Amino acid sequence: MSGETLQVYFLGTAGALPTPSRNPPxxxxxxxxxxxxxxxxxxxxxxxxxxxxxxxxNAIFVSHWHADHFLGIFGLVQTMSFNGRTEPLTIYGxxxxxxxxxxxxxxxxxxxxxxxxxxxxxxxxxxxFDGYTISAFGANHGIPALGYIxxxxxRPGRFNRERAIxxxxxxxxxxxxxxxxxxxxxxxxTEQRTVNPEDVLGARRPGRKIVYTGDTREVCxxxxxxxxxxxxxxHDATYDExxxxxxxxxxxxxxxxxxxxxxxxxxxxxxxxxTSSRYxxxxxxxxxxxxxxxxxxxxxxxxxxxxxxFRD
Length: 312
Ligand SMILES: [Zn+2]
Ligand SMILES: [Zn+2]
Known about the structure:
The protein is of the alpha/beta class.
């Protein structure tokens, strides 16, 4: 469907170490009836309770196998099983995903009522969902690490009602068929005519795009080609400018580097995430990023939700 709501819940925004107010990374994306997780840090299921966004997760995309990004899967899977889940769960991630899923099943001494499959992704891999694609790109984090892009299919163009009436189409079900891209016939016998959707629809309109870098140093090659024009660029911003050297050493980005990435990639909104526990708040991070990027910059708190609107 082209008119789905697209909501992003920031269930965990901490970097590496949790704090009393920030959980390790977990981003839930709800689109229509689909629920996708980008990373699933420790305590993610309690954050889902607090955010009241449910446990009906269709798929989990793990960016890399540092514990702050996957420890929440263990508890979440047990809770899903207690809740009587029977639908299969797919866990996507870079190399080592199969070992992780094997360990997950091995340590689970409870009656797992659904199947769990691990799928290994690499730069350029993609997974098709109904109405959108999630693709992976290589991040720069010192170990195999991926970022993810959720890319909606283009939407049909606007329906030109006046033009349709001019062409003799009676308002009613035929309007809907044309809007869905179907060709319709009107009239009978020798008077019969065909009206194509292109006759009454404007140019196709872009879908929405969310880019999540996971943990990464400043903008890497992989991202430049594929991550342009994101409606939401969710970028590693572990450090502020005073710690830029530390960021490079530990394969993380500063907020200013996230700002540069947002500028270079023509993002619409920049979201700073993975804030190091050394900072009491992310105010300096937002200021650093705003010096490099003219668009809106957000440093969400845990449980914040952002709704991503269509561009027009
Ligand atoms: Zn991390
Ligand atoms: Zn990491």
